[in-house]
Amino acid sequence: MPYRNPASEKQRDFFALLAHVPELILSLSAAGGRDAASVNAHGRFQLLDKLWPATEDARNHDRETLLAFSEHSTLKLAVTDEPVVHLHVDWAMIRFAWIGARPKTLIGTDHEIVLCAEKDKGTRVFSFHLVQQEDLPEHERWPRETWIDLDAPRAKGLS
Known about the structure:
The protein is mainly beta. It has one helix at about 10-20; strands spanning about 25-30, 40-50, 65-70, 85-90, 95-100, 110-115, 125-130, 145-150. The protein has one domain (about 10-50, about 60-150): Heme iron utilization protein-like fold (3-Layer(aba) Sandwich), CATH 3.40.1570. It contains one helix and eight strands, in the order H-E-E-E-E-E-E-E-E.
């Protein structure tokens, strides 16, 4: 399980833009080498802050920002008051994003949004494939085909 922590303001701004895209495809793969399994999720994605009761796991914060999935613009919640489908993300690892063209995938997408630890796609934490590039709103702070600094929050325990 990754460290649980809140997203930075730049990360929140970035995902506020992505939350308007009607269909993104989240792509997760195992790190390094040949993947044994991967996950794709088609839909909308938004950030959701969650407060947790005190835990014995000192690595984790009592507050975290979940990456929540929904088929439409509203989130469906489980009995635990969490989104039915969500990701726990160590936001301190998400330092840069890149938006641009990529080779066409099996599902026909040819643009991606890559979230990385460094300015290197080899440090990819996760990515989104765009069903239609036109669905991504133009924004002067998020240029295409260049690295975007997301000003990650500091990792817990670091000063």
